[in-house]
Amino acid sequence: MSEAYDGGCECGAVRYRMHGAPIMTNCCHCRDCQRITGSAFAINVMIETGRIEILKGEPVVRTLERGDKGDTRAWRCGTCDTLLYADHPMFADNARFVRAGTLDRGELLIPDAHYFTQSKYTWVVIPEGVAQFTTLPENGAGVNLGNERMARLMATLAG
Ligand SMILES: [Zn+2]
Ligand SMILES: [Zn+2]
């Protein structure tokens, strides 16, 4: 029986566990995320780096150079290449963005916000009342996550 926030790659060589609920879940509809996932958007589950434990295997880290946008690191299975999680320059080494699709029960996490809707596929309909941004909000999540999650978000912001 797996824990609520366990996940892993497609081939099973890497397994990980998130300790506790994420800070937030967002869908990113930017072109980079579309290309990397080969899909309409990426589902990013934000959590403190220290709350991710590798249970099996060893993810391989690769840097994606993105010019002005700042480099992003992505952790993948070295065998099947599944992208498990990435970081973001806004949060330096403090947070990871787990790909919800690699969680055993990713469907339990409901997105708090949608980013980069300027390149959203037109047939993707965002539920009414869910925050959406044409690009990225200026700072942090752009949406009020409540006291506990906002405090955790602020604690992970770089600089
Ligand atoms: Zn694998
Ligand atoms: Zn993106």
Task: Give your account of this protein's structure.
By secondary structure, this protein is mainly β. It has one domain: Alpha-Beta Complex (glutathione-dependent formaldehyde- activating enzyme (gfa)), CATH 3.90.1590.10. The protein has 2 helices and 11 strands; from the N terminus they run E-E-E-H-E-E-E-E-E-E-E-E-H. It has helices at 31-37, 147-156, and strands at residues 6-8, 15-18, 24-28, 42-48, 52-56, 60-64, 72-76, 83-86, 95-99, 113-115, 131-132. An 8-stranded mixed β-sheet has the order 6-7-8-9-4-3-10-11. Strands 1-2-5 form a 3-stranded antiparallel β-sheet, with no helix packed on it. The longest helix has 10 residues, at 147-156. The mean pLDDT is 94. The protein binds zinc ion (ZN) (2 copies). One zinc ion is lined by residues 28, 30, 32-33, 42, 116.
